[in-house]
Design goal:
Number of domains: 2
Number of helices: 14
Largest sheet: 7 strands, mixed
Structural class: alpha/beta
CATH class of the largest domain: Alpha Beta
Strand content: 15-25%
Number of strands: 14
Order of helices and strands: HHEHEHEHEEHEHEHEHEHHEHHHEEEE
CATH architecture of the largest domain: 3-Layer(aba) Sandwich
Strand order of the largest sheet: 7-6-8-9-10-13-14
Distance between the termini: 56 Å
Shape: globular
Radius of gyration: 22 Å
């Protein structure tokens, strides 16, 4: 199969799809080709919209549904005569086994592809279930590298995984620290240990920071969900590290950072790697004092992309927050639609082949050309942000930075 080269913008893709539909309506297309447009392409969308992860899951569902609706509003899949995408919504209820059960329902209903499922442990279950039936599954958020390291030919992740993000987190922190005169000698790590993404951070950070003379003096793990961080805060006050590196989900991120504020734990910096709340507009708006100057190496959109800013405006208009769940699920769905368009078919095997060959280079993310290696987009990269006032600014790497890091924090 030829490689999928798409140098046009998402807007061009949608316009072309609309033009194809217009031809079909005018009778310019052959009868067999026009007939295919009558059958929609079914896409399973599964997220935890109830349970402990319901906030983030609901945000992700909005992003995926928005992308699907935009493709349909502009005329559907051009190579299939304007076939519409039909969303089948599933609720994983924040439980891996429920997510897997939703995949079984998608299979029985004839889904051609699946997008989801936010949390790493849920994604591990849904991708495995989809593999049994040969359903292509595009992971939107789940960062555990186990998701794409099991040899599942049906599984694709457009965004970066845990290993790549943590490596970038080390490199960018060392650059920020060096620019400030290298004030950091000790760090402490606080990570979640339940869902599969937080447990590996200590080893990567320790190995990466050691050559710069920075010691990881403590690693404090916690379950997800977690309702009390007071003991961890007391321990951090006792060891008094220069920099604190947390890694967890949104609810725990909010509680943890607010507990630090109440307990007056004040390191030189809080530099999250995959921090659940550290680069979330909701947290900044609700708890601005606890959020101030917190840095985060995480998923982030290209701040110079006008289509990203348009999606941000649409998200805000819907009363939601433009957080990573929204733009990751959105781009996962656009990627899925583009690959269906290239395959020219609702056939699962053909869509998987298109996903493996895709070289899409015009997403709203700072990735460049897509290059799938064993299901992982090797061109994906995170950015480093910092809360400044009521805004979140990109501070690294330099080619995307909109502000300089405030480090150490005042």
């Amino acid at each position: 199969m030829k490689k999928f080269m798409s140098n046009g913008s998402r807007r061009d893709f949608i316009k072309k799809a609309g033009a194809t539909t217009a031809l079909a309506a005018s009778g310019a297309l052959s009868t067999p080709f026009f007939a295919r447009a009558a059958s929609p392409v079914k896409i399973g969308i599964v997220h935890p919209v109830t349970g402990w992860a319901q906030y983030s899951g609901s945000q992700a569902r909005f992003g995926a549904q928005t992308a699907l609706d935009e493709v349909n509003a502009a005329g559907g899949i051009k190579s299939m005569g304007g076939a519409m995408l039909e969303a089948m919504l599933g609720d994983a209820q924040s439980k891996p086994e429920v997510g897997a059960a939703e995949v079984e329902k998608f299979n029985e209903a004839g889904a051609s592809a699946i997008v989801g499922a936010y949390a790493s442990n849920i994604c591990l279950a849904t991708t495995q279930a989809a593999a049994k039936h040969g359903i292509p599954h595009v992971v939107d958020v789940g960062v555990s590298d186990k998701i794409v390291s099991r040899g599942l030919e049906n599984t694709f992740r457009f965004g970066p995984g845990f290993g790549a993000i943590t490596k970038a987190g080390v490199e960018n922190f060392l650059a920020i620290n060096k620019a400030a005169g290298s004030p950091t000698k000790t760090v402490a790590i606080v990570n979640e240990e339940t869902t599969g993404f937080g447990a590996g951070i200590a080893g990567i950070m320790t190995k990466g920071l050691a050559p710069a003379g920075i010691e990881v003096v403590e690693v404090l793990s916690h379950p997800t969900p977690n309702k009390d961080f007071r003991n961890i805060a007391l321990k951090l006050r006792e060891i008094d590290p220069d920099v604190l590196i947390p890694s967890h989900y949104y609810n725990e991120g909010v509680l943890f950072l607010r507990t630090l504020q109440r307990q007056k734990v004040q390191p030189k910096a809080i530099y999250s790697v995959l921090g659940g709340a550290s680069s979330q507009f909701r947290f900044v708006s609700e708890f601005p004092d606890a959020a101030q100057y917190v840095m985060d190496c995480n998923h982030w959109f290209d701040p110079n992309n006008p289509e990203a800013l348009a999606l941000q405006a649409k998200t805000n208009a819907a009363g939601l927050h433009f957080n990573y769940e929204v733009f990751l699920a959105y781009t996962a769905m656009v990627f899925t639609a583009k690959c269906i368009d290239f395959a020219g078919s609702a056939d699962r095997a053909k869509i998987m082949e298109a996903m493996a060959a895709c070289t899409w280079s015009d997403s709203i993310m700072p990735y460049g050309a897509t290059k799938m290696v064993n299901g992982q987009n090797s061109g994906a990269r995170p950015l480093v942000t910092q809360v400044v006032g009521s805004d979140i600014k990109v501070i690294a790497p330099n080619d995307f930075a909109a502000a300089k890091a405030v480090f150490p924090r005042p």
